[in-house]
Amino acid sequence: MSSRAPARPVGTVTRGTTNPNRLRRMDRWIAATHGAELRRAADPLAVDLGYGAAPWTAVELLLRLRSVAPRARVVGVEIEPARVAAAEPYAREGLDFRHGGFEIPVPRRPHLVRAANVLRQYDEDEVAAVWRRLCARLAPADPVTGSRGGLLVEGTCDEIGRRHVWVALGPEGPRTVTFATRLGSLERPSDLAERLPKALIHRNVPGEPVHAFLRDFDRAWAAAAPYASYGARQRWIRTVRELTADWPVTDGPARWRQGEVTVRWGALAPRG
Ligand SMILES: C[S@@+](CC[C@H](N)C(=O)[O-])C[C@H]1O[C@@H](n2cnc3c(N)ncnc32)[C@H](O)[C@@H]1O
Which atom belonging to ligand 1 lies closest to the Cα atom of 53? Predict the structure, then answer.
């Protein structure tokens, strides 16, 4: 354990549920959207914060990041000491494990912090402070190189990773919200509502932007029903294209084809 770690890590031990390949959609999105930042760093450092009872997601994150940034390193950070001990045999070149919490006990400011299925077990009113704390740990933006700085990816998914929603934040704060799903199993876009991250899940009520967004998403999905005969992918692409008329969608068809859509955070942020 790093000598920088405080005696008591910041946070609370929660359930350790995880699964192999559960976070593949999130890993791939990170590789696609943040790969260039990781490549440009001399010594790119990523943290899998709260990897759970087994270290699979940290091992997979290393492999997927290395496919786009061969110098990337991953540190798995867990607040439950027995889970750190259980992970040790999986340490390898580029991957190690530390006991710690939201203070993130690594010696440098990381280029990526991924916290999947961690904050869902905290209270909604704790989220803003945790986000601020984690964002302050990210590698800073650098106007000279054009770097936007490190990225925090915080979100939730189901047991086997078919439905995901995550928020991406930079050193300056929240940037985007991404919805990602296995299209074959989707009845309607609002099926994703149960996987909203903690900052949004209690806001899926009339009068809140995220509720209006999911309502519009379902309407556009219904209107795109004729495209279903070309497959769920074509229907999703058509649906998202329709959504772009009213919502600030930040990505394009290459990501939509994966069953994703990313929207500017400001459009979905809770009111008040
Ligand atoms: C449900 S598991 C998620 C495992 C994995 N990230 C996944 O998505 O499959 C949540 C883990 O986060 C850990 N955790 C909770 N708060 C934490 C904190 N402040 N710092 C580090 N780990 C934390 C818990 O101990 C638990 O093992």
Answer: 27
Gap from CA of 24 to ligand 1 centroid (Å)? 17
Spacing, Cα 20 to ligand 1 middle (Å): 15
The dihedral built from the CA positions of residue 156, 159, 160 and 163, taken in this order, carries a sign that is negative
The answer to whether the pTM exceeds 0.90 is yes
Convert the pLDDT of each residue in 148-192 to its tens digit. Answer: 999 999 999 999 999 999 999 999 999 999 999 999 989 999 999
Tally the C-alpha atoms within 13 A of residue 154's C-alpha that lie toward its C-beta: 25
Domain ranges, ordered by start, for the chain:
24-265
Residues with CB under 6 A from ligand 1: 11-18, 22-23, 49-52, 57, 77-80, 83, 101-102, 116-118
CB-based contacts of 175, cutoff 8 Å, min separation 6: 168, 169, 264, 265
The residue written with tokens 């402070």 in the block is 129
SS3 179: strand
The structural architecture, per CATH, of the domain 24-265 is: 3-Layer(aba) Sandwich (3.40)
Ligand 1 centre distance from Cα of residue 219 (Å): 35
SS3 state of residue 155: strand
